[in-house]
């Protein structure tokens, strides 16, 4: 009984959920961003400039040379100005959105490059320490040239009829 009473009462430790009067569709921000990037890329091409020029020339030619009954925008071309202003008012925010998305991608790439560079520096420092340790270790190991010279000296002593290490017996003991 207490459990069912608790579920009906509002909880005071949590904010109330606000009910929306009208549920608006939630667009996918990534899809909108991708669309804006495509549009911004298209607007930065020569093809867009050519098509806009052709459209404006056709618009002006239609409204200058067409019979007066089918003209829709007389000489000061106020409707053309309105259309171009509307196009510019939508183009500017879309271009800014595309630039922001590119900046975000550049920032992520820069962070990855910085991390990769830090790993490379750390690896290089590690390898430098390892090479130094190997050089130190090799300094304590008999080298091939040292062994070769010792063997040649022993061969000379044997050829001379002397017992090897005759002079050094005291040192060996």
UniProtKB/TrEMBL annotation:
Annotated TM spans: 48-65, 77-97
Cross-referenced InterPro entries: DUF1003
Keywords from the UniProt entry: Membrane, Transmembrane, Transmembrane helix
Superkingdom, natural source: Bacteria
A Pfam family per the record: DUF1003
Record protein name field: DUF1003 domain-containing protein
Cited PANTHER family: INTEGRAL MEMBRANE PROTEIN-RELATED, MEMBRANE PROTEIN
Species of the source: Streptacidiphilus fuscans
């Amino acid at each position: 009984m207490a459990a069912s009473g608790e579920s009906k009462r509002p909880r005071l430790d949590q904010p109330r959920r606000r009910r929306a009067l009208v549920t608006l569709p939630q667009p996918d921000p990534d899809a909108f961003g991708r669309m804006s990037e495509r549009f911004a890329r298209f607007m930065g091409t020569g093809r867009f400039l050519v098509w806009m020029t052709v459209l404006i020339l056709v618009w002006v030619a239609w409204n200058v040379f067409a019979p007066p009954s089918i003209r829709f925008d007389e000489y000061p071309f106020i409707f053309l100005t309105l259309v171009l202003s509307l196009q510019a008012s939508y183009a500017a925010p879309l271009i800014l959105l595309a630039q922001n998305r590119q900046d975000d991608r550049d920032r992520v790439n820069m962070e990855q490059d910085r991390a990769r560079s830090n790993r490379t520096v750390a690896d290089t420092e590690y390898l430098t320490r390892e090479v130094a340790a190997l050089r130190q270790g090799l300094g304590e190991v008999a080298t091939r040239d040292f062994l070769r010279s010792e063997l040649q000296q022993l061969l000379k002593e044997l050829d001379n009829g002397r017992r090897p290490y005759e002079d050094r017996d005291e040192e060996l003991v």
